[in-house]
Amino acid sequence: MIRTPPERGGWLEVVCGPMFSGKSEELIRRLRRAEIAGQRVLIVKPRIDDRYDVSHVVSHAGARMRAVCANSAADVLRLAEGYDAVGIDEAQFFDAEIVGVARRLVRRGARVVAAGLDTDFRGELFGAMPMLLCLAELVDKLQAVCHRCGGAATRTQRLVDGRPAPFSGETVQVGARDSYEARCTSCYEPGFDAEPLVALTLSA
Length: 204
Ligand code: ADP
Ligand code: MG
Ligand code: ZN
What we know:
It is built from 4 helices and 13 strands. It is an alpha/beta fold. It has 2 domains: 11-142, P-loop containing nucleotide triphosphate hydrolases (Rossmann fold, 3-Layer(aba) Sandwich), CATH 3.40.50.300; 143-191, Wheat Germ Agglutinin (Isolectin 2), domain 1 (2-Layer Sandwich), CATH 3.30.60.20. Zinc ion is lined by residues 146, 148-149, 151, 183-184, 186-187.
């Protein structure tokens, strides 16, 4: 297996996986190294995600790096002006325009590292992640530790009051306790109104 980033020009790296798999930690690790190498480094995250701290990316284990909140993909393009390496955390929450933005940044010569959930708690493809994964020069799919059995977790389990969350969000009661776990495919429990996984329509 050969994994070499291009020697000249920009490129796109994607880090994906379920919750708790270490995506933010890996994003921070890569961008901190770029900073040590003297590069101008920026991490952006969607404004939606205001967990822990609005001006930092913070991993579940406490690793942190300053970050700027972006209101939209167009905002990312504007904020990233003049940076050599641009990290995008929670990339799945940006609008589809993030794909064009990532490509433009790469054409400008930037190294773009996008981290995000590849699937949601229903097991469906998440936002623009499939496109980013296809366009990336380098891809890593991380695994978490299954909260149930300790195996390799590739899924995000959403629980409402300790039970698998229904797939139609409207039925979740206000005031219910919402939580997330990493699960392996055997321990993952779909919501009761589960549709088949990933309905793909192939056009002729
Ligand atoms: P992500 O961004 O993918 O949600 P983070 O980088 O925020 O993940 O957190 C990864 C860290 O979370 C791990 O290094 C570990 O210390 C901690 N952690 C907590 N629960 C789990 C789990 N079930 N599997 C793996 N790591 C976990
Ligand atoms: Mg994260
Ligand atoms: Zn398991």
